[in-house]
Amino acid sequence: MQQAGFLDQRAKLGGRVAVVIGGGGGIGAAITLALAGAGVDVALCDIDGTELEATVKAATATGRRVHGDVLDATDPAALDAFYDSVTTVFGHADIVVNVVGGTFRTAFMEIDRAGISADIQRNYGYVVQSVQRAVPLLRAGGMRGGSIVNFTTIEAHRGAATFAVYAGAKAATTNFTRSIAVELGKEGIRVNCIAPDTTPSRGNQVAMPPEVGARFANVRPEAIGEAMAMYIPAGSSPPVDALADAVLFLASDLSAFVSGMTLHVDGGTMAAAGFLDWPHGDGFVPVPLGGTTPLMFPGEDNT
């Protein structure tokens, strides 16, 4: 208990106000509940009314003030209306987390212009609007400065074939975060990114084409786990709570001098940069060697 009290004293999260864009389900719900559990009042919005209602109820049970609105954060008018309501209810904010994002897997030349615009808006455009609306709330806070956390992705840092527009939009969010961190630094407003990779979220499931999802339905769960262990150096996908913990760190005074940075919460996949832990004795190499290759391509001359 003494150790927990010591960390709480250093983090200084209790009594602060957070805004979570996309805080109703999945990763966003884990973040909302982690903040509320740390003594933070929370305003959240989400497109899914059922999930938002459940998260608001759970967050309220912690004893914190909670305000929730159902809306599509990629709709500029709806997002403005939400920030207006946050201003009315709380008057200020200390923490802002932009979680909303998502995409679909398809070849670039097969995406129509409406799809391109939608991908850019939900992964970059709304973030710019949210930050611009958030800064006055942070300036109005009782404490100097504040923390903005934008969700980006590992795909912003590598060539993501069949996710080109998404990767480009997330890269824009990453560099926007760096730039605005520099611009707002002297006000004590810190701006950082969290870059997940594969996580057990609804967004990752939706990103798969139906035919890919159908093929996964016929794969043993153990086999999927073994495949993830090959890809992720940590051996498994980070749970949503690991992302929530990263938000708590970046939102708190434990990261008081961290700004303009991207925190990769991915179990080491960014560090691995394509090195997979192949089975059958091949180990960590970019492509399978003599142990795995003959099993992948049976009947061929692999000598």
UniProtKB/TrEMBL annotation:
Family: Belongs to the short-chain dehydrogenases/reductases (SDR) family.
Superkingdom as given in the UniProt entry: Bacteria
Protein name according to UniProt: SDR family NAD(P)-dependent oxidoreductase
InterPro entries, sorted: NAD(P)-bd_dom_sf (IPR036291), SDR_fam (IPR002347)
A Pfam family matched in the record: adh_short_C2
Keyword set, alphabetical order: Oxidoreductase
